[in-house]
Amino acid sequence: MKRSPLTAARKHLTDAQLVAFLHAAARDGHALAPRMFCERLATGCTLDDLFAVQPDDEMSMQAVLRVRRIREHTYRITTGYEGAVGDGADWTVTFDATGALLHCEVGVMWVC
Q1: Is residue 1 pLDDT above 60, yes or no?
Q2: Which of 24, 80, 83, 94 has an alpha carbon within 20 to 30 A of 105's alpha carbon?
Q3: What are phi and psi of 96, to 5 degrees?
Q4: Cα(10)–Cα(106) distance, rounded to whole angstroms?
Q5: String of DSSP letters for 5-58
Q6: Of all helices (H) and strands (E), which one includes residue 92?
Q7: Measured at the alpha carbon of residue 40, what is the angle toward residues 96 and 58, in degrees to the nearest 5?
Q8: Is the model's pLDDT at 56 over the cut of 70?
Q9: CA 99 to CA 76: how far, in whole Å?
Q10: pTM of the full predicted structure?
């Protein structure tokens, strides 16, 4: 069985940092997926629910979350939906030493 992408992301960032990132990405308006994630969070959905592994099905949409550390406090975060339909992007995200979000800039985007 595939592992949730949240498991690997949590090795780098806390849930609070991930949620702060999703809200910042939703506000920038470049990709629809972060807005959809935030709407689901607002209705009581958890990060675990959002990024649960979906069964392989040609019509399913899988929420994607990849976090790669670029340097101290700066990460490349990829999120969105992949599958039959979806969108997403890569963001360069910087947090301060306390974990507060400082900067969130979109990079490469995709639509499928």
Answers
A1: no
A2: 83
A3: -85, 180
A4: 21
A5: HHHHHTTTS-HHHHHHHHHHHHHH-S-HHHHHHHHHHHTT--HHHHTPPPPP-T
A6: strand 87-95
A7: 110
A8: no
A9: 15
A10: 0.91
